[in-house]
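re the bet — no i am not wrong, look at it urself. input seq straight from the record:
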Amino acid sequence: MNIRHIYILSAALLLSAAAAAQRRYQRPQKADTLLVVKAYTDSLARSLQLADSIAAVRSALRNGTTDGRYFRLFVPPTFYHSAAVKTLEISPAASGRDDVTDAVDAALLSIYMRRPDLVTTTETGLRRVGSIRADVEKPVRRNVELTEWVEPVADEPVTVPVEVVVRRPNFWTFSGDNSLQVMQNYVSENWHKGGESNYSMVGSVTLNANYNNKKRIKFENKLEMKLGYQTSPSDTLHKYKTNNDLLRYTGKLGLQATKRWYYTLQVLAYTQFAKGLKNNDKKVYSDFMSPFNLNVGLGMDYSVETRNKRLTGSVNLSFLSFNFRYVDRKNLAKKYGVIGDHHTLEDFGSQLTTSLTWKITDQIKWVTRLYGYTTYEKALLEWENTITLNVTKYISTRIFVYPRLDDSAKKRDEEWGYWQFNEYCSLGLSYSF
């Protein structure tokens, strides 16, 4: 007997053993498997119908009989060992068999043979990560204790003690602008307070305290203080002298007439801090309370505010205005219009005060003030302009331009006439709040 005959005989023996094993173990037929699956899906549909009944839900919760043996049919396809072992075993054990488990294994085996591409996970892999359970061989029963159903209780408002704190509104707002600048200054020769064109230093403080009750009453207060000194090599009499000197208060009490118009009583008072001098001249041209001006005007005030709030301010028109002037130095009284051996001067007229702030960009701001007063015999016009360029939060450059017209002067300048002019450009520290 050669090797070829041995191979043929071995194959025949293997085929006969497989046939005998198939006869000894009757595997579930395909039809039986489909019946099991159909019966289970039908039970799911029936459970879904019963779930619509409250009584069915209570019964299921009390005596639930969810069968965990079917879970392998409804999870992602996985290769389980039991299906292959039962198919390949030669003499299956008669005891411990479960018809439901055998039917599920047969269904899974059909998937393994027909669509192996769907099976991506194995039982070995699941056990390795610990995600497979071994306690679902028997139906799982829940032991749930339920209380008796009761009618819903109507919601009742719960009374909670609350401490109410009423705060009185604060209608006051405060702001300010402070700066200390070094500058180049130009002053015309006939400037009414004296001074000289030169490099100098000036400090200024502006404080605002405004009241507005958002109804009809508005009360605005503004205090401006400015003092600058310069030294002049050409001046042999004075070590230093002032070139900017201002102490001014502006107050307005308004009663709202329309949205932007107010009936207003305005008070304007201003003087200076120190003596006003000129180069190589012992004469004092101005001083504290020489002069002191007080103007009280009754009129209308218009509030200016654009939509983007970049341009804000007010325009005040006082058709009836009383002006009081006091000159403490008698030798300066005549210069400032006081007649005779007196210190005071009173007259009536009309005045216009325009104060605007235009925020051109986030870094550039223009503040302008136009003041005019006339008795219809003489006129005074002042136009102050300050352009501020903020280099940083605390460093800024300022340009100050101040033309002034006063035809009450006793002597008319040959070059400037009744006009006077003050200008400076400075760089220094600034702080606003």
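see?? Helices lie at 3-24, 30-50, 54-62, 81-88, 99-114, 123-129. told u. also The radius of gyration is 52 Å. so pay up
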